[in-house]
Each structure stands twice: as C-alpha cells, then as structure tokens.
Write a structure and sequence with these properties.
441 residues, eight-stranded mixed sheet, PmbA/TldD fold
C-alpha cells in the first residue's frame, strides 16, 4: 500500500529506525444458543502500529486510521521508551504470500443457518433435554509490515471455525461437552465432529466413581496442548533471560523421554497461526525446541534474542491469549503451532491397553499450581473411566495432578501415530498415554 510506504519513508527520515505494522481484520459470525438461532453479526477493523528508535529509545504508538501524524506521536512516546539495543528487521526481502483457502472463501455465512439447525436436530435426536450452542465464524486477516532496514512483507489469510457446546442437566448433575475446530484440515468435515460429540454424550450418561490413586491416563490432543502450555512457558526467552524458568540452564541437556521431539512450526498452513513471517519481519521457520528428549532451543522475539545472544526464532507476535491478535499490541513472545513427532500406536490401541485408568478430554484449569516448576493440577470437566480397555462411564469431581517434566521424562507409555489439531489449532499433537498419574476423586 503506497500510503504505508509514504508513512515509513517520512518516519525513517526523522528517526534512527522505523517499523510500520498494518493489520486488517474482518469477520462474520453466526451463533445458536439453547437450540435457537441467536445472532448473525459482522465486524471489521484495521489499524497501524508504528515503532521507532529515536535518540536510542523505542517509541510505540497505534492508530485505527492510516495517517502521518502517528509519526510525531511515536517520537514523543520514545522519550519514555525502552532503550533496548535490538534492531528492527533489516533483511531486504519482499514477501507477498497468499494463505487464502478457496473452500473457506466460498463459504456463505447465511448458508450455515440450515447446517446449524441440522446439527442441533441430530444431537437432540439422542435426547430432547440436551441444549446445544453453536458458533460458526469466518475471518480474514491482511497483514503488511515495512521497516526502514528494507523489509517489506504482505500476506492475507482466512479462517473458518466452528465450536459446539452441549449441556445436559438433571438432578445433581450438569454434563457439558465442548467440541470445535479452527484449522483448515477439518473445515467441511463437521460431521466427524458431531459424531465424536454424540459418542461422548452416549458414554457420558452413566456416571461412575474412581478411587484415589495413581492410574494410567490418556490425554486428548486438547489436553496435551494444555500440558504443553506449561512447557511453552518454560522455553519463553524472556523467562530464560530472567532465569525464572527451570530450563534456563538446561540447553543441550536431556529433559524428556528420548522419543519426544517438540517443535514450533508456523509454516504448517493448516493452522490458524500459519504465516510467512512474524510481526517483526523474521521469516517463519520450524524451530526445534526438543529433539529426542534434548532441549534444543527457545522461543524468541528480537528483543530477547539480543539479550540471549541468539537469533530470533520468529515468535514475535502482536497478540495475547485473551483477545487474540491486534495492531494495538507491542510484539511479544508467542508460539505459533506446537507440534510433537507422532508415536507408533493408534488411538484405539492406547485406549484398549488400559486395564483401569481414565481418558481425559477437557481440563480447563489444568495449569493451576506452580507452573514455573512444571507442577499442574486441574479438575476433569470432561473425562471417562476406562476398564479393561473400554469406557465404562463418565467421572465427576476428579482432579489430576503431577509435574510436566516428570511426566514427559519418566511416565510416557505411548503416543498415537496420527496427529490432531487442538480446538485452537495452536497445537498439532498426538494422543498421549502416561502411567502413574495422581488421581483424586
């Protein structure tokens, strides 16, 4: 966009360095609540974020309009800014990438009304007392990034997501299930999601008890993502620099089972976070974090890469975990898509290998505890007891706890040979089975 180039040129002439980021978001959302169509909404936003270095300090300002007076405001903010010594991207590269999935592009949000009604009808055919809530959303993002060092990048991508929550209430029991996807691979395959949801409803109608103790526990991909969020905190470059991570001195050492290799990979085009470069102009790359159990690297943005004297891993993104991505955010360390190399068993083989244990599908508060040391504990909201390789019923008021680093080093029994995206598509991981997990009911 010529107007962005003009702003950058003018800013570069009065500062030591300049970086201009532009983000445009548009979304269409369709929502069903309690079995009925609730709303159909559209939203669009755009804006710019300008970082400058003036007199050795970083200034940052944002605007919802593309205008030149943003330059003066950025320079003024630099008076109170950070004096970090990192430089903005100086690579003379010109990226123009298209991450538009044409199948998603052709989805008309109006046509999803009948799809939602059909899904609700199918689910409630099992029991009319089930309340169904569905959200369909179609999003398009357009990004431009320019720096005075010569970087010029642009890409456009789209997303399509679907989330379903069912609720079944009876005396002394509220049974809720969440299912959904936000990756391109599942788009158009909603029937599989509904089939899995009905399977869980059927097997969850019977509530069973489990005694306190240590059991084998099978974690679904969504729960694996929750577990790995503890690890991601541990390889955050800022925490490594401040020595508040248990991994700050472990580079090159064995920290996990030798069968475990973990990467962050924004180049996987199926994920919602796929991109050709991060929000600081660092080219996307598959970053090894753990290979065959050995700690190989950290997640870094430009600022922390200088502090640690390492190259940036391309994980500087303008987002947070609550509200998502925005031009209003200063770049910070965020993962893109955490992946684990697969195992050798099918999901069914892992399940059938359990004589007595639990199958955990949702633990929203799993990261409660001293996550700095890897400890975790959480209440199982959606989980089943397994006996002789078969699901015997749903468990309630059950807490699982342990330590992530012990779990991944000493307690791994197996991983599925297939990888699955989590609901957020922030991870593409296998089912994972562990032994001797503390279970309290």
């Amino acid at each position: 966009m010529e107007c962005l180039e003009k702003i950058l040129d003018k800013s570069s002439s009065v500062t030591e360095e300049s970086e201009l980021f532009y983000l445009k978001n548009s979304s269409e959302k369709l929502e069903f609540e309690a079995n009925e169509l609730q709303s159909m909404t559209g939203k669009e936003s755009e804006g710019t974020g300008l970082r400058v270095r003036k007199d050795g300090k970083i200034g940052f300002i944002t605007s919802s309009r593309i205008e030149e007076d943003i330059i003066e405001k950025a320079i003024l903010s630099a008076e109170f800014g950070d004096d970090s010594t990192f430089s903005f991207s100086g690579k003379h590269e010109n990226f123009s990438s298209d991450y538009i999935d044409r199948n998603i592009d052709n989805i008309n949000i109006d046509t999803l009304v009948s799809r939602g009604e059909d899904i609700i009808k199918e689910i409630r055919s099992f029991d009319k007392k089930i309340n169904v809530n569905i959200t369909f959303e179609k999003r398009v993002e357009e990004v431009h990034l320019l720096t005075s060092g010569g970087f010029m990048g642009h890409y456009k991508k789209n997303h399509y997501s679907m989330f379903v929550r069912t609720e079944f209430t009876r005396e002394n029991d509220i049974f809720e299930i969440w299912k959904g996807f936000s990756d391109r691979e599942t788009a158009g395959k909603e029937e599989r999601l509904v089939s899995e949801l009905l399977f869980d409803i059927k097997h969850g109608m019977s509530v069973v008890k489990i005694q306190n103790g240590k059991y084998p526990v099978l974690f679904s991909p969504d729960v694996v993502e929750e577990l790995l969020s503890i690890f991601v905190t541990g390889v955050d470059g800022n925490r490594i620099y401040r020595k508040t991570s248990p991994l700050y001195s472990k580079l090159g050492q064995e920290i996990f089972n030798e069968t475990i290799s973990i990467y962050d990979d924004p180049s996987i085009k199926g994920g919602a976070n796929s991109c050709p470069f991060d929000d600081e102009g660092v080219v996307s790359q598959k970053t090894p974090l753990v290979e065959k159990g050995i700690l190989k690297g950290f997640l870094l943005d430009l600022k922390n890469s200088v502090k640690l004297n390492m190259p940036s891993s391309g994980n500087g993104f303008r987002k947070n975990w609550i509200t998502g991505r925005s031009y209003e955010y200063y770049p910070s360390i965020n993962p893109s898509c955490i992946t684990i190399n697969p195992g050798s068993s099918s999901y069914e083989e892992l399940l059938s290998s359990m004589k007595e244990g639990i199958f955990v599908k949702s633990v929203p508060d799993l990261c409660m505890g001293n996550i700095q040391n890897g400890d975790f504990a959480g209440t199982v909201i959606h989980g089943f007891k397994v006996e002789q390789g078969n699901i015997s019923g749903r468990i309630k008021n059950t807490v699982i706890s342990g330590n992530l680093y012990n779990l991944l080093k000493n307690q791994l029994l197996g991983m599925s040979k297939d990888l699955y995206y989590s609901i957020s598509s922030g991870a593409r991981v296998p089912y994972m089975l562990f032994r001797d997990v503390e279970v309290t009911s």
